[in-house]
Amino acid sequence: MKNEILILPGDGIGPEVINEAVKVIKVLQKKKLINSVIRYAKIGGYAIDTVGLPLPNDTLKAAKASRSILLGAVGGHKWDNIKDFNKRPEYGLLKLRKSLKFFANLRHTCFNPQVLSSSIKSEKLSNVNILLVRELSQGIYFGKPRGVLYNKYFLRHGYNTSKLDEKAIRRIGIIAFEIAKTRKKKICSVDKANVLEVSRLWREIISDLAKSYPEVKVSHMYVDNAAMQIILSPKIFDVIVTGNMFGDIISDEAANLTGSIGMLPSASINSIGQSLFEPCHGSAPDIENKGIANPIATILSVSMMLHFSLQKPLLSKYLNASISNVLKKGFRTADIKYTGIKIVSTKQMGDLIIEEFEKLI
Length: 361
Ligand code: NAD
Hints:
Layout: E1 2-10, H1 14-30, E2 37-40, H2 44-51, H3 57-65, E3 66-73, H4 89-99, E4 104-110, H5 122-125, E5 129-135, E6 147-150, E7 156-159, H6 166-182, E8 186-191, H7 197-210, E9 217-222, H8 223-232, E10 239-242, H9 244-255, E11 265-269, E12 275-279, H10 296-309, H11 313-328, E13 331-332, E14 342-343, H12 346-360
Helix pairs in contact: 1-10, 1-12, 2-4, 6-7, 8-9, 10-11, 11-12
Nicotinamide-adenine-dinucleotide binds next to α4.
GO biological process, one term: L-leucine biosynthetic process
Subunit structure: Homodimer.
Protein name: 3-isopropylmalate dehydrogenase
C-alpha cells in the first residue's frame, strides 16, 4: 500500500470543496509535516462523460494502492435519466466502497456553538455529541435481485432486496461497542424489527453481542422513532449503530443539528488500514458553480484523515481549532449564515481556514 492520498473530486460541488481541502494537504506537504503524495483520479458522472464508466479501472487500481482516499461527491441531474444502475454516477461510489471492502462508516455530529443556524433550539443542542456507526457493505443498496420488470398485466414493478448476514452485523456491532467503550458507554441500535425479518436478525445479533460488553448500556429503537428522537431529544444519543439505508437517512437528519450538511465529515474504514474520507453531503447540483458551497465538511474530512489514517492527531486538532476560530470571527458560508454575519465564498472560507491553520502549525 502506497503512502498516497488519492483525490476523487467527482461532480457538482465536489471539485469546489475538494479544492479547498487540497489546500490544507498542500500546506502540510510544503511544511514537511506529512510525507504523503497526492494523486487525482476520476469518479462518478465526470468519469462517465470522459471514460464511459462511473468507476474507471485506473481509478479502482489507484484506490486499491492508496492508504487514504478523499472524495468530493458524485451524481447530478445530467445523469438522472440513466436507467441502468451500473452506469449511474452513484454506482461508482458504491462499487468503490464495496471493492475496497469498507464495511464501517463513522459520522460524528457535534453541535458547534459558533454555528447558530440550526433549525433546532440551541438549548436542546448544547453538548450534543453523536457518533453514528453505519454498516456499509450489505443491505438494500447492494442486495440482489433488483430491478424494474413488467408483470403479466404489463405493469412495471420496481424491486430491491435487503440482505444482511450475521457476520456483517456482528462485525459492525463490534466496531460500535469498542467505540462506545471509549465514550459514554451507551449504544442505541436502530432497526425496524417490528416489520422486517432482516431487522429482527440485526436485533438478535446486537443483543447477543451486548453480553460480551456488560459495561455498555444498550437500547433498541425503531428507525421511525429514532428519526423523531434525533430532533426532539438529540442528547439521549451517544453511539448509534445501524444498517446502511437507515444510517444514510438518519445521518442527514443529524446533519441538521450541526447547522448544515456542509459541516459533516465522514470516514469509512476497512480491515487492512485503508480509509475513505468524504463529506456527508452530495453533489448539491442546486448550488453548483455558484462559489457558495460550504467546504468545512470536506476540510473536516481531511482532519479525520489526519487523525485516523495519517496518525497526526495533533494536526487534526489544530485544523479543527482553525475552523472554530474562523467561525468565531463571524465568517460564514451562505448555508450557515445569520443576521449580521459576514458571508464568504467557498474559496474565501478555505483561505481563511488556511490562514488560521498556518498560525497554529
Ligand atoms: P445534497 O447533499 O447534494 O444536497 C442537499 C441540500 O443540501 C441541497 O439543498 C444542497 O444545496 C445543500 N448542500 C449540500 N452540501 C452543501 C454544502 N457543502 N454547502 C452548502 N449547501 C450544501 O443531496 P441531494 O440533493 O439529495 O443529492 C444531489 C445529488 O448528489 C444526487 O445526484 C445524489 O445522488 C448525489 N449524492 C451523492 C452523495 C455522495 O457522493 N456521497 C451523497 C448524497 C447524494
